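Incident review: delayed structure delivery

Summary: a single-chain prediction request sat in the queue longer than the usual turnaround. Root cause was a stuck worker, restarted by the on-call engineer. No data loss occurred. The affected request and its eventual output are reproduced below so the record is complete for anyone auditing the incident later.

Affected input:
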Amino acid sequence: MVRQHSKNMASISRIHNGIINNGILNVFWLIFVLMIVFLLLIIVGLLTYTDTKSMATVLQQPEFHFAVKFTLGTSIIAMLLAAAFALPVAYILSRHKIPGRAFIDTLLDIPIVLPPLVSGIALLIFFGPLFGKQLEQIGISVVFSQLGVIIAQWFIATPFAVRSFIQAFGSIDQRMEKVARTLGFSPTMVFVKVTLPLARDGLLGGVMMAWARALGEFGATAMLAGITRMKTETLSVAVFLNMSIGDMNFAIATSIVMLIIALLVLAGLKILSRREVIA
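Output delivered after worker restart:
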């Protein structure tokens, strides 16, 4: 009787645990479906809110052409600068033990943690009251200029490149670099011929991430470079300016273009990440 009772209790316990586990799994599936549906509805809502005629009219306006060209030009320059600064920083952090590593990591993450508006104010003070006059004496004007847009985009985008590059370098088997050294390769040759090719996909992913962040930057840009139509007007600024005057068609059309660009960039990132995992 005691043995039979124990078996019954064990069966009841298994059923109870199965119900709990299935219940949690069902809740997870419900949340998953709700999240996907919510995101799809947001995208569909944005894409269908305006009509084709209004969209075509906006796409033909000189202001829209300026915003697209200016955003692509400044963001690409900012991306290249971010990569140029992130590459040596990430390599050193991934290959050397540096005193105060935690402090340095925190310092590099500040542009990620800080609200963009606060980053913009900090940049405005740096290139204004602190060093603005000295820079103007050598012909460099940053505040309320197109150069300010690039600097703001670079400042916000660089930490994302640094983090991605650190992961890319960290995923490399360092024994291959050591083997290359034993074959007579100099440190520079090892870096160029071994390290960079092995980390290529991760580095490209980091570059694209930095570019995506620069493309959508608004807060720091607005603080440092200002919001001036047809001068410092990026796509994000164009959305803000036209929303503020009630031109919904222009704002929505610009938002749709930014959405398409973001989807293309994310698709590229996913493809690169998949290639990296397969490799």
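Verification: Residues 2-48 form the longest helix (47 residues).
Action items: add queue-age alerting; document worker restart procedure.
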